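Hi U.,

Before I forget, here's the chain from the pilot set. I'm dumping it here mostly so it's searchable later in email.
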Amino acid sequence: MTGGIAAYKACELTRLLVKEGHEVRVVMTDAATRFIAPLTFQALSGRLVHTAWLDATAEAGMGHIELARWADAVVVAPASADFMAKLAHGLADDLLSTLCLATSAPLYLAPAMNRLMWQHPATQANGAVLQSRGAMLLGPAEGEQACGETGAGRMLEPAEIIALLHGKGLLYGVRVTLTAGPTREPIDPVRVLSNRSSGRMGFALAAAAREAGAEVRLITGPVALPTPSGVVRSDVETAEQMHKAVLEALPHTDIFIAAAAVADYRPAQAASHKIKKHAAALSLELERTPDILAAVATASPRPFCVGFAAETEDLLSNARTKLKNKRLDMIAANRVDQGLGIEQPDNALEVLWSGGQRSLQRAPKERLARELIVLIGERYFQTRDTRTS
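Structure:
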C-alpha cells in the first residue's frame, strides 16, 4: 500500500482477504505508515509487515526477491499518482516499487487520488503504459472524495476489489430480483389506471446487475423494452400480479430492488363491459393495492431491500420517511421534474441508508444504474458481514 487517505480501506481489504482463506503479506511505503500504523496490518494479516528495502531477516537480506517469489498476486491498494508514475518509469527506490519490478505474479493497482490528479494527462498516460505492460487497474470509482470534491478518483471498495481479483463481478453469485415499469389497473376492458413510467431505469439496473455477475430476475409491467442479456424476465400487468410474482421469487432473492412505479390504488370494481359516455361526470371508487415493498421488507428471512422514491417536492424528507417507515436498507430518491426521471433519458439520485447518503449526479440512466449497483453491492456486503459476524 502507498500513502493516501484511502489507506484506511486497505484494513478492510486485508481482513476480507484473510477471511476468505488467503495468505496476506503487507508491504507499506514510508508514506503509507504515516496514515496507518504497521501494527494494524500485522494484527489483521497475522504476519509481520514489510517496510524496509533491505531486510536482514529475509533470504539473503533481499526482502523484495523473497516476496516477489512468494506472491501469487500483488495488489497495490491504494495506488497513488506518485507510485503509478514511479512504476511507469521503472524506478525502484523502495521495497514496494522494487517488489513490483521483480515479481512475475499478476500486478493489480487500485488508484486513489484527487479527481484532477486522476484526469491529468500524465496520470492517464502512466496508467496506459502500465496496462500495456500487463498491469491491471482496478478502478477508480466515482463519488465524494476526502478533499470535498466529487468525481473519479476514489479507491474501489474492498469487496469490489476482491470480486475483480477473482475475475468475477461485484455481485457474482448474488441473486437479485428487480421490479420495473408501470402497472395497469383495469377500469373496464378498454381503460386502465396507470402512470408515465417507461421502465428504462429498472431495465438499466437489471443490465448493470447482470454485468456485475448477479443472477437477475426482472419482474416488469407493460413496457416496450428488450430484455437485457442474461436476465430472466417475467411480465405482469397489475399490482396484484406483480405482488404475487415477487413473493414467489422471494425465497431465491438476496437483493430486492423495487424500481417499478406500482399503482397505489385500483378501481374497487372493474366494469365487465366498456363504460359508455352517457353521464356528464363519472366517479370511480378506488381501493389500495398490495404494498409490495413493505411485504418484502417484513418477510423472514428478508433480502437486502432497496426502494425508490419519485418525488416532486421535499425529496430528502419524503425519502427518509419512506426509508424508515418501510424498514428499508437503502432508498434511491429522484425528482420527476426539471427534465429528469420518468420518461426522460437522464436521471439524478440521492441515495440514503441508515447513517449515510450519497449523491449520484445527473447522467444517462444506463451509467447511473452502474453507479447505483456498485453502491448497492458495497452496502449489501457490509450489511451481510455485520449480520453474520
